[in-house]
Amino acid sequence: MAKCDEGYLCDVCGKPVERLFESDLYLRYVIGMLDPEVLHTTPERHVKCNPALAQFVVHEKFAPVECAGDFDKRNLDASFVQQRETLVTRGYERLRELARLDLPIVDYPLPEFRGKYVR
Question: Are 39 and 29 in contact (CB under 8 A)?
């Protein structure tokens, strides 16, 4: 089977990343952590398969994820955690919104990150 016929498989668990709002790759893009030039070369994974980022999603439709170890948000500065939860949750909400819209990929990021990587 051709690679393009396989869909996007999670680099961690190996299962398909079937919905946009399950995508760690696109979540990082939407919140300004990933240059659009590397979207096609960066491994995909489920948001939940990246606990260091997933722990910051605080949303009724997203089951909480714990990140054991030094990067557990309970070990981090409370102000940083609040800022990160706000940003990452907004990104997750944006992905859920994008799943219903038909927009060009350059318009996926949150407003403050659109055009961040324009040279």
Answer: yes
pTM for this one?
0.90
Domain ranges of the chain: 3-100
- The per-residue pLDDT for range 58-101, each reduced to its tens digit, is 999 999 999 999 999 999 999 999 999 999 999 999 999 999 99
CB of 66 closer than 8 Å to CB of 51: yes
Cα separation values, 101 from 47, 49, 78, 88, Å: 20, 25, 34, 20
Given phi > 0 = left and psi -120 to 50 = alpha, else beta, which region is 4? alpha
Contacts 24+ apart (CB under 8 A), 58-67: 58/85, 58/89, 59/89, 59/92, 59/93, 61/96, 62/92
